[in-house]
Each structure stands twice: as structure tokens, then as C-alpha cells.
Amino acid sequence: MTPMTEPPLNPPPPPPPGPGLPPAGYANNDEKTWALVAHFGGAAGALIGTGCAGWIAPLIALLAKGNESPAVRQHAVAALNFQILVSIVGIIGWITTCILIGFVIWLAAMAVGIIFGVLAGLKANEGQFYKYPISVPLVK
């Protein structure tokens, strides 16, 4: 047998960060926690508030840590803009429930707020920024 002279095609992945080290994309673990509060809290608010309260957790994250951390601010503003839009649609759904189409609008707003909030939270957990598919830049 001849010795292998070519390097392997795929190098091994880098080792995961050790305990006490900040996750990728964040300066410290506190930033990651607040980014997750913004996204997962928005999804939870959309569920608990039946499509109309998803904006509360991102607003809390923005007010609590937005001035201290650019990463938290970026995540919180993205989540807040998305959840405000979903909440407006949810409120329109509630108002128009008497003509039955509002029930469909309300359920769709709640589902969209939950699904995309969870997807954004999973990306934030990996240290990446998630761009929501529908969003209006109301908060900058």
C-alpha cells in the first residue's frame, strides 16, 4: 500500500466552544439569552395572545438590552417589526370574525407569528441573524 499524499477533501469541523466561552455571533451569553427572548418570546406571545401579543417580548428585549448590545438590538428590532405586523393582521382578523373570513385571518396570523418566531429563535441560538420573510421597518 502507498501512503496517502493528498489531504482529505473535508477538513474536520472546529471544536465547539468550551464552557464559559460566548457562543458564535455574541459577545457573551447574556446577549444570546436576550436575542432568544426576542424571538422565542415573540412566538410565545403570538400563541398566548392569540396572534395579537407577539410584540411584547421583543419590545422588552429592546428596552432592556438594546442600548447595550448591537447584536441584541438587531435581533429585537427584527422580531419587533415582524411581530407588530402580525399583531395588526391578527387584530384585523379579530375585528372581521363576524363575517367568518376574520377567523381564517386570525388563525393565519397566529400561526405565522409562531412559526417564524421559532425559526428565528433557532437561527439566533446558532449565532446567526434571521431575516423575517415579511416585515415592515416600523422600528429602526
From TrEMBL:
InterPro entries linked to this entry: MamF_MmsF
Membrane topology: Multi-pass membrane protein
N-terminal signal peptide: none
Keywords: Membrane, Transmembrane, Transmembrane helix
Biased segments, Pro residues type: 1-22
Membrane-spanning ranges: 36-64, 76-95, 101-122
Region (Disordered): 1-24
Compartment list: Membrane
Protein name: DUF4870 domain-containing protein
Lineage: Bacteria, Bacillati, Actinomycetota, Actinomycetes, Micromonosporales
